[in-house]
Design a protein that fits this description.
16 helices, 376 residues, Arc Repressor Mutant, subunit A, alpha/beta, globular, TIM Barrel, 17 strands
């Protein structure tokens, strides 16, 4: 079983109104390099030389703000301290308007072979409300530049249920996305997190409260339209053309190991141990630079925890949970163990059982949090 590596690059040109990730405003110079030095030091101290790795994911933040030599240095350090597979998937998150053709060619030459960027919407007014720093024209140019640079595995995000967004405008968004033909699409219903500018705007009446019922209609419509266009709905929030599922993200849902580096990064050893780093950038830097651990939370999973995660993480994948595999791992029958809950969800049309597979229906995917709560 090969592991994945996640590298958190927290810097952005500006902060989106809905974002609650661990990010900071990008300022070229010593502050960025100081962080990257700490990141590489953390990797070097991980003692992972014997671990086989087949995915590397630059997330953030906006990793594409880094210079090619900085990306190259990070990858070199990863290569020294981990056993990298020849068929390595290297993903870099990008924001439209932060890259140019020459930069993308340099990233591609370094081995970055998958690009993921936040289109979010093709409506400039909606982008402005979200506090995004790019325009629709930037998105279209970035996509074209990626193709010209040799990227044949491109993913981008769309957000449904924006304040004031109409079904017609959402349909135009989806159709425009499908017309571009990316290999992968990530789709999200807008979540309003307390403490974000968007939450404050809604509280003060500057923007309307998102319509959850309309967002559900948008979700259903997109899945049908994307299916017609040849996309597979392989995970609750993700669609892809055949063969282009995110190998890295799939590790999160199937219990494979992954190791996160950088502030707020999370890790799992694929067996029983989870841990996470300090979220605050300053405290992360202080810890690493003083040769202390940046880890602030550790969890040793019990057998009950592992069984629970195998169900609610496994059911994020639309193929569902294989009850034979579950029985081999834990020595119990999933259908018997959760007979009452499964019967209730099957009757409600949220879960279906086909042979050895227990999986969400399309309606169940929309109400997945309610379903998963029964297995936690």
């Amino acid at each position: 079983m090969s592991a994945g590596i996640y590298l958190h690059i927290p810097f952005c040109k500006s902060r989106c109104s809905y974002c609650d990730f661990a990010t900071d405003i990008y300022r070229s110079g010593d502050s960025v390099q100081r962080y990257l030095n700490a990141l590489c030091k953390e990797i070097a101290g991980s003692a992972g030389q014997t671990v086989k790795v087949d995915t590397v994911y630059f997330g953030g933040g906006t990793p594409s703000l880094l210079k090619p030599d900085q990306v190259e240095n990070i990858l070199n350090v990863v290569d020294i301290y981990f056993d990298l597979d020849r068929n390595l998937e290297i993903t870099m998150e990008m924001n439209p308007g932060t890259v140019d053709p020459d930069l993308l060619k340099q990233f591609r030459a370094l081995g970055v072979n998958r690009a993921s960027f936040g289109a979010q919407t093709f409506d400039d007014k909606e982008l402005a409300k979200l506090g995004r720093s790019h325009t629709t024209a930037d998105t279209l140019k970035t996509f074209s530049d990626l193709r010209s640079a040799g990227f044949d595995n491109i993913s981008f995000d769309l957000i449904a249920g924006l304040p004031g967004q109409t079904l017609e405008r959402w349909q135009q968004n989806v159709n425009q996305a499908l017309a571009l033909g990316p290999e992968h699409l990530s789709f999200y219903l807008l979540e309003v997190h307390e403490g974000t500018p968007l939450a404050e705007h809604i509280r003060r009446g500057i923007q309307p409260q998102p319509d959850e019922d309309l967002a559900a209609i948008m979700y259903e419509w997109m899945l049908g339209r994307a299916s017609e266009a040849g996309y597979e709905h392989y995970e609750i929030s993700n669609l892809c053309l055949r063969g282009f599922a995110s190998r890295h993200n799939t590790k999160y849902w199937t219990g494979e190991p992954y190791f996160g580096f950088g502030c707020s990064a999370h890790s799992y050893d694929g067996q029983q141990r989870r841990w996470s780093n300090e979220r605050d950038i300053g405290r992360y830097l202080t810890a690493v630079e003083s040769d202390a651990s940046p880890i602030v939370e550790r969890q040793l999973l019990s057998t009950a925890d592992l069984r629970s995660e195998a169900v609610f993480l496994g059911m994020r994948l639309m193929r569902g949970v294989d009850t034979r595999r579950y029985r081999e791992l834990f020595g119990v029958d999933l259908n018997t163990e959760h007979e009452e809950e499964l019967a209730r969800f099957v009757d409600a049309g949220l879960v279906e059982i086909q042979g050895d597979l227990v999986r969400l229906t399309r309606a169940g995917a929309l109400m997945s949090n309610e379903v998963f709560a029964a297995f936690v």
